[in-house]
UniProtKB/TrEMBL annotation:
<dbReference type="InterPro" id="IPR029058">
    <property type="entry name" value="AB_hydrolase_fold"/>
</dbReference>
<dbReference type="InterPro" id="IPR000639">
    <property type="entry name" value="Epox_hydrolase-like"/>
</dbReference>
<protein>
    <recommendedName>
        <fullName>Epoxide hydrolase</fullName>
    </recommendedName>
</protein>
<keyword id="KW-0378">Hydrolase</keyword>
<dbReference type="GO" id="GO:0016787">
    <property type="term" value="F:hydrolase activity"/>
</dbReference>
<comment type="similarity">
    <text>Belongs to the AB hydrolase superfamily. Epoxide hydrolase family.</text>
</comment>
Length: 177
């Protein structure tokens, strides 16, 4: 990942234990959560040298309609108790996860799947992902792929940004069975 995206790619920045936690604390838990949830910048998450905020101008920006101040306060209260180490450790453990799942390399997902993403999602717009999904390569790995939905103007947290639309997609998918 470092070779492709550089040292400031979020996964690379999260590797040094304590450093990312200190940056998170420096930004402020509530501000960081707001930054992450409301980021509208497509492409790989490259973090600015001065901190972890994905969206540096959020302090004065109003919250989007799908994120209330109460929600933000609630999320922040949970991370104030636990910190970010648990979540960051997921990224620090990617090599071991890769090793542990090696026996399933090349395995197909053989259940029916409806894949929903946003056209501003940082994963969908990262190097090669959009092409992988749209070229038919995804369908080879997921042969029972029923549908791919790319929501316009929607970023990474599509289940929150467009909760009703996501619920409708899930309901329509489930009732087929």
């Amino acid at each position: 990942m470092r070779a492709v995206y550089g040292d400031d790619y979020y996964i690379c920045r999260f590797q040094e234990e304590g450093k990312a936690e200190a940056e998170c604390k420096n930004i402020g838990i509530k501000e960081l959560i707001k930054n992450v949830l409301t980021s509208r910048r497509p492409g790989p998450p490259i973090l600015p040298k001065e901190g972890m905020g994905f969206n540096p101008n959020t302090s004065s920006a109003p919250l989007p309609s799908w994120l209330s101040q109460d929600d933000l306060t609630y999320y922040a209260s949970k991370f104030e108790k636990t910190g970010f180490t648990g979540g960051l450790n997921y990224y620090r453990n990617l090599n071991l996860n890769w090793e542990l799942t090696a026996p399933w390399t090349g395995a197909q997902v053989k259940v029916p799947v409806k894949f929903i993403t946003g056209d501003l999602d940082v994963v969908y717009t990262s190097l090669g992902m959009k092409d992988y999904i749209e070229s038919g390569a995804f369908k080879k790995d997921v042969p029972n792929l029923v549908e791919v939905v790319v929501q316009e103007g929607v970023a990474h947290f599509n289940n929150q940004e467009t909760a009703e639309d996501i619920s409708n997609h899930i309901y329509d998918f489930i009732k087929r069975f």
